[in-house]
Every structure is written in structure tokens, then in C-alpha cells.
Design goal:
538 residues; five-stranded parallel beta sheet; 22 strands; eight-stranded mixed beta sheet; Alpha-Beta Plaits; alpha+beta; FAD/NAD(P)-binding domain
């Protein structure tokens, strides 16, 4: 019988032999047949501890009194169950007038929607405006070397989505009662990710692994009957009587489709405009903008681990910080990348935006994260696409600050705080950018209210992490794509109310924020699609 142990705390330095002894003591000598780590986190508030949740198999069933005495509970892992068998799916497709489902976009939402559809026999067609991930990686590296941008294949667009060139963080606050979270994690592991993502409290894959994992996931979908068409941008939905009939591509091909999953990501601005023009219901959504900040990773490690900073038994230290500014603005860290680098994440000509990434080892010199300020209609004005236009203005200003040739504008926090407009200082934190950068007055990007909130927030964070607000902390601009500026509306069946057969999903549609929540939303959307197919076929 399996039982769950919560909050099993041990010093991070204990040997495996000592760990086993402590667990046996915790269970008062009960015979343990097997032990599975369900979750591991770090508690560094006083003595540094690893905190475990475990599933242990014992050689006998415990009574309720014994369970209470040992502070354990019966454990049964929740397995994800597919909505139907492949045979049922094939019958539903064969009887459907509209043919197989089409998925637009191959980020986490699109890939996992396609995976579930393929496992259920629906043989989805995936349209992706960017390149396959192997070719996409070459395009990103070429851009970093030369500044020659491919607008449809870059850090934002291409197989795997924007998350492919990030830290590959897999933590999520989304509640999951159907086993979808573990379905996603196990799929990643089976495609080449390290097994520790199954139990680490803050799991991450790393960009270097993600590229291989995404390619393997595509191959699995293809083996199950799915099809991918890369460098194929969906330019228009062909509709009839308020229902999708086909997808028109940039090349002019009309692809019949009465079921379309829209998983376009948060940067598909041309697609947002097209959907708005075609009357697809959407609304503006508050989001956040700011700058990316870099420190030496050893500063963050010392703050978290003290004398044990750098100990290889400990994960590279992270942080998550929030502050309410005096002017009412929320300031917070986002997408923290330990031992990583800042990246030039442009996807449009004449515009610049930054992001962060880490490889699996998280072993580079700097830590970075976005420092964001929440914004709303007060900043970008009325209109469904007003936030999108505001993003573009910020990115155009950043492009000009960088000299107009895709060099990234950077500034020390000391200069930013002092409002220096020339004679910029060079600090001890060196930029981790692989592309060119140049010093600039980043205050010109934002309103005085946002600048005030940024300075106040970073200063407040310095009271939580000593040295966070040091003068030579390095800022890079601009962070403008932390989330989608719009929400594409859908009903309880995940269908667009203005366009039957259209299923908006993922981060671009405003229903997710990060790899895991987007992947899980893709799964939920596929489930709704399958339900509709089977219902029509009955």
C-alpha cells in the first residue's frame, strides 16, 4: 500500500545513508518497499533544508489510527485519461464533414493540443508561421551575429513558441484535477527532458534541452498521424454563416477546416489585427512592461544560501519579488533566469524587445529577471488593440535608443536612478547579451509614473536581497511581452462566440502565462474539440 508523507525535512548536506535512516525513523521502522519523490523544495530561511513530499510503499496496510500516528495518508496517483481511444477518434473523423482539426501555432498550447488530438486518432494539421526548431535555432544565431531579422522565425516565432528560447520554467499556479500537469511533464521527460522536472518545486528544462525536446515531441505527433507545415502563416479565416470553413495561408492556399484551434502566442500582432477585422470577439487585457535587470549570480546565491553559496548540492538560487509603489503601481520580478543571459527577442523590423533565458545547468555568470510595472487603459488608452499599439511604440523607442541597428540599449541602475542622460557609467556587471548593446537613457521609454515605480521597486528589492539595488546592476530595455495584451473570448465549450468552430487557447488568447499553463490549456482545448467531434458523430 502506498502512503503520502508531506513535509519531510532534512539538512541538504545529509548522505543517502543518513537520509534513509531519517525516513525510517519518521515511519517508526515500518518496512519500506519503495519510495518516490513527489516534490522537493528548498527552505533556506534558517538552516538550509530540503523539504520533500514522498510516496512510500509499505509492506502492509495501515489502520486509520496508525496513519494518524505516523502523519501519513493513503496515496493514489491521478493518471491522465485520454478523452477517447484512437479507434473512437478515427471513427469520429471519418464521419465528420469538416475533416481533421487544424491547429494554428506550435508553441506549448498548440503542441499539446496536437499531441492529445493525435493520441486520440484525430491526425491534426499544425500550421506554423516560423521554422522547425532546428532551422529556427540557426536563424536566431544568425540574427545575433548580424542583426538580420527573420520576422516570421525568431525568438518569438517558430516551433516551440517563445518559451523555447527562455529558461524553460515549468512551475505554474494553475490548479489541476485531471492529471494534465503530470501528462505534460511526463511527455517532456519521454522526449528528452531530465527526470527531475517531475518532482522539483521549481522545475525547468533549459533552452539547450528544450530545442531537442520540442523536436522529439513533433516527431511523436507525426508518428501518430499528425502533420506539420512550417513557414506557413495563417492570414485569414474563411467563414460562412458565422462558422469557420477554411484557413487561408499567406501563400494563398485555402485549407478546408471546420475546426480550428487558435494557439498563436502573445506576439502575433498581425493575426490579432486580422481577427479583430473579421469580427472575432476579443477585449483588451491589462499587462505589464519594464526592464530586465542583471546581477552577478553569486550575489543572489550569497543572499539565499549565505556561507553555502556555490555548494553544488544546492540549486542555483532564484528569487520572486513584489512591491506596491507609493503611486499604487504593482512592481514585480518576472521570468527570473538564474545563471542565464539576456536575449534580443525582436520579431518586427524597427522594434526591439528583450527577454531572458538559461540553459539546463544554469551556470553562467549572471542572474537576470524582468522588473515589471502593471499597466492598464490609463497608460495605453481605450480600444481593443490599444495595448498592442503601446507595446509597439515602446519597442520602436528602444530600437531608436539602441542606434537603429538592433543593438540593445542598456544602462546601470545607478544612472537610471539618477536620471543621467549622458556620460553613462560602466559598472562591474557585464552584459550577458550575445548581440551588440549600447549605453542609453532608458527613462525616455516610459512615463514618469512608471519610472518612479521601477526605481522604488528595485530599491525596495534591495532591502530583501542585499545588493539588488546596487548602482552597477545592469538594466536592458525593453520588456514589453510578458503576456498577451488581449483576450480572445470563448464560451464554456472554449468556442469563439462570434465564430463557431474556432477555439482560442493558450497565452496569446489570454488564457495562460508560461509553458505549463499554456500546455495545459492546449490539452483542455483538445478535449473540448474531441467532445464536439464525438457529439456530432453520435
Amino acid at each position: 500500500m502506498k502512503y503520502k508523507i508531506s513535509d519531510f525535512r532534512v539538512d541538504f548536506r545529509v548522505t543517502q545513508q543518513e537520509w534513509d535512516r531519517l525516513l525510517s525513523k519518521r515511519l517508526r521502522g515500518e518496512q519500506i518497499l519503495s519510495c518516490q519523490v513527489l516534490r522537493r523544495s528548498v527552505d533556506a530561511r534558517k538552516n538550509i533544508l530540503f523539504v520533500y513530499h514522498l510516496a512510500v510503499e509499505l509492506n502492509r496496510r495501515l489502520s486509520e489510527v496508525e496513519q494518524k500516528a505516523l502523519n501519513v495518508e493513503e496515496y493514489a496517483e491521478e493518471e491522465y485519461r485520454l478523452p477517447c481511444s484512437a479507434e473512437e477518434g478515427q471513427r469520429a473523423i471519418a464521419g465528420a464533414a469538416g475533416g481533421r482539426p487544424v491547429v494554428i501555432g506550435s508553441g506549448p498550447a498548440g503542441l499539446f493540443a496536437a499531441l492529445i488530438l493525435a493520441e486520440c486518432g484525430f491526425c491534426p494539421l499544425v500550421l506554423e508561421r516560423g521554422e522547425a526548431v532546428e532551422k529556427r535555432q540557426q536563424s536566431v544565431e544568425h540574427y545575433n551575429r548580424t542583426g538580420e531579422l527573420k520576422e516570421n522565425s525568431n525568438i518569438q516565432f517558430g516551433e516551440g513558441g517563445a518559451g523555447t528560447f527562455s529558461d524553460g520554467k515549468l512551475n505554474t499556479g494553475v490548479k489541476d484535477s485531471g492529471g494534465r500537469r503530470m501528462k505534460v511533464l511526463r511527455a517532456f521527460v519521454s522526449c528528452g527532458a531530465k527526470e527531475d522536472i517531475l518532482y522539483e518545486a521549481k522545475p525547468h528544462i533549459g533552452t539547450d534541452y528544450l530545442i531537442r525536446v520540442v523536436a522529439a515531441l513533433r516527431r511523436r505527433i507525426e508518428e501518430l498521424g499528425g502533420e506539420f507545415r512550417f513557414e506557413t502563416r495563417a492570414d485569414r479565416l474563411c467563414t460562412e454563416a458565422g462558422k469557420v470553413r477554411a484557413v487561408l495561408t499567406e501563400a494563398g492556399e485555402e485549407i478546408p477546416a471546420e475546426t480550428v484551434i487558435l494557439a498563436i502566442g502573445h506576439s502575433a500582432r498581425d493575426t490579432f489585427a486580422m481577427l479583430r477585422e473579421q469580427g472575432v470577439a476579443m477585449q483588451a487585457k491589462p499587462f505589464a512592461v519594464g526592464l530586465r535587470i542583471e546581477h552577478r549570480q553569486e550575489l543572489i546565491d550569497r543572499s539565499q544560501y549565505g556561507q553555502y553559496a556555490g555548494d553544488r548540492r544546492l540549486p542555483t538560487a532564484e528569487y520572486k519579488l513584489t512591491h506596491q509603489a507609493e503611486n499604487g503601481r504593482r512592481v514585480y520580478s518576472f521570468c527570473m533566469c538564474p545563471g542565464g543571459r539576456v536575449v534580443n527577442a525582436a520579431s518586427e523590423r524597427g522594434r526591439l524587445v528583450c527577454n531572458g533565458m538559461s540553459c539546463q545547468a544554469r551556470d553562467l555568470e549572471n542572474a537576470n529577471s524582468a522588473i515589471l510595472v502593471g499597466i492598464d487603459e490609463r497608460d495605453y488608452g481605450p480600444g481593443v488593440l490599444a495595448g498592442l499599439d503601446y507595446q509597439r511604440r515602446l519597442e520602436e523607442a528602444a530600437f531608436c535608443l539602441g542606434g537603429g541597428d538592433y543593438a540593445m540599449p542598456v544602462e546601470t541602475f545607478g544612472d537610471f536612478k539618477a536620471g543621467r542622460t549622458e556620460n553613462f557609467q560602466i559598472g562591474g556587471v557585464k552584459s550577458s547579451l550575445e548581440c551588440r548593446s549600447c549605453p542609453a537613457d532608458l527613462r525616455t521609454l516610459f512615463s514618469p509614473e512608471i519610472n518612479q515605480a521601477l526605481v522604488e521597486g528595485i530599491t525596495a528589492f534591495g532591502r530583501k536581497i542585499k545588493g539588488f539595488d546596487q548602482d552597477d546592476a545592469l538594466l536592458t530595455g525593453v520588456e514589453a511581452r510578458s503576456s498577451s495584451p488581449v483576450r480572445i473570448l470563448r464560451d464554456e465549450d472554449f468556442v469563439s462566440p462570434a465564430c463557431r468552430g474556432l477555439y482560442p487557447c493558450g497565452e496569446g488568447a489570454g488564457y495562460a502565462g508560461g509553458i505549463m499553463s499554456a500546455a495545459m490549456d492546449g490539452i483542455k482545448t483538445a478535449e473540448k474539440v474531441i467532445e464536439a467531434y464525438i457529439r456530432r458523430n453520435q
